[in-house]
Amino acid sequence: MGVRDREEDIKKAIDYITAGWDPKYIITTGGLGITHDDITVEAISKALNLRLRESSEARKFVLEAMQRLKETVTDEDSLKKLYMLPEGFSPLRNPVGVAPGLIGEVVLGGRRRTIIVLPGVPAEAEGIFVTNIAGRIMKRPEGVERVYREIAVRSRESKIHRVLKTLQKEFEGLKVGSYPQTPEVVLIRLSGSKEEVERGFKRLVDLLQEVVGPAGKG
Q: Residue 206 CB: number of other CB atoms within 10 A?
């Protein structure tokens, strides 16, 4: 469901979803930036009666992301909003953008629930979900370990999209994700069973060799 950038609307949405569907997981997207109307974290904090605290881990994630994306930090105080989390919540590294996601367990409606907060940019939300969340909440066969492996490729995404399509077709059980880091660098992430990831990675390197030459390190 969609709600406006108003604290009371966000609180009502959480209450409505909790009462109407009794979910184990509540996932929100959007409102994690540094502008005045990015209020999701503050609204959730107030709705749950939790104080905001500064997270050194979130700060580390933010500064590392800015360095990776070659963004200049001119005023770190303006970034502080990105690493203020409700008590008990943990940051989730953003492999695509800057703003971390966050996750926390709370008691709502008499039972424990997990709240996951993701950025509104689809590629960022997907990147955080795949690398931080999917392995925790998605069921998989007993005894099957789900792993991921990634490689940075110096190429435009448009140049390698056929490689990714071919790989996904050949390995149906493999999750293939691509996340542009700069206009000329794409991070490719494979996730699945350990055996499938290893076989898929070897095939990926071969396919990339044909299109862009020697690939980056994974």
A: 12
SS3 category, 92: strand
Give the C-alpha distances (Å, rounded to integers) separating 154 from 40, 47, 53, 75, 185: 35, 44, 38, 30, 4
**Angle at 61 (CA atoms; ends 55, 65), nearest 5 degrees:** 150
Distance CA 184, CA 155 (A): 5
**pTM for the whole thing?**
0.69
Which class for 190: exposed (0-12), middle (13-18), buried (19 or more C-beta within 10 A)?
buried
pLDDT tens profile 112-156: 999 999 999 988 998 899 888 887 776 555 555 678 888 888 888
Give the closest residue to 92 by CA, choosing from 122, 53, 118, 54.
118
How many whole angstroms separate alpha carbon 195 and alpha carbon 92?
A: 26
Paired tokens of 132: 């931080």
Which pLDDT value is given to residue 116? 96
Domains of the chain: 7-137 (3.40.980.10), 146-212 (3.30.70.1130)
Strands 90-92 and 25-29, by their bridges, are: unpaired
Secondary element (H or E) of residue 26? strand 25-29
Task: State the pLDDT confidence band at 84, using cuts at 50, 70 and 90.
Answer: very high
Handedness of CA 65, 167, 204, 173 (dihedral sign): positive
